Amino acid sequence: MGSHTVFGMVEVSRAKGASRERIPVTLEWRGTVAMVTLRRPERRNAVDLESLVLLQAIHDQVRETARVVVLTGVAPAFCAGADLTGVEGDEFGAALGAVLRGFTELACITMASIDGPALGAGTQLALACDLRIATPTSPFGIPAAKLGLAVDQWTIERASREFGWSVARHMLLGVGNYSAEQLHAQGGVHRLGSLADALEWAEELSALAPITVAAHKRGLEAVAEKLVVDEKFEELRMKAWASADAHEGRTAFLEKRKANFTGK
Question: Would you call 192 exposed, middle or buried from its count of C-beta atoms within 10 A (0-12, 13-18, 19+)?
Fold first, then answer.
């Protein structure tokens, strides 16, 4: 398969004046390795609804052909979270959940290549991938408690499995951040390295037997799917999203001030 670049949902000719910088997500093929790049550097690659819609479309594009999908972000971050100017509606939450599960449903290997902050939704995207490679100082964390928000049970389960119970508890309750080097020592990050290292690793992995990979991946996901969603947790999570504290948290973040939470 020849190398070409897909901008957003459709292949775009450079001759038509397409600007890579104006597209929030791009897809580039390198043989059977698909490199998906978040491109909102002015927002540190924070994902908005448009980005999530494009990621869902890319899942469909790579499903039948890719042996490995590498998810990365342009400098200065992997993904600094959700774009808080557009997360109020249910549509964003549903789209984020679909994207996260979409990575787990692909039959091929998915790899997050992280250079710079992977926070909030960035950590969630990294968790959704099968493998993680990162530069040593790249920080991970889920600062939802600073914003009055609550992540879904899938994220809590995934963080507990991939990072370990103690680290997940610190991230979620104590908003603790961990460097890639720290997570690598505990197995949560599989390798330390750059995007070039990630692509070299992906090339090696693309030579593995794809049917075996698909079977093993499905088996691993089947173990995770035994989780039963707790109704009380869902009630509390939705209460958090609908609270005055959630509005205050987002407003304080955007105004670059400390939030004043009242528990309402």
Answer: middle
Q: Which residues are paired to 112 by β-bridges?
A: 71, 132
Q: Is 51:25 a contact under the CB 8 Å cutoff?
A: yes
* pLDDT tens readout for residues 17-76: 444 557 999 999 999 999 999 999 999 999 999 999 999 999 999 999 999 999 999 999
Task: List domains and CATH numbers for the chain.
Answer: 5-195+209-254 (3.90.226.10)
- For 182-223, the DSSP string reads HHHHHTSS-EE--HHHHHHHHHHHTTS-HHHHHHHHHHHHHH
Q: pTM to 2 decimals?
A: 0.85
Nearest to 81 by CA among 139, 35, 142, 22: 142
Cα-Cα-Cα-Cα torsion 102, 106, 108, 110, nearest 10 degrees, comes to 10
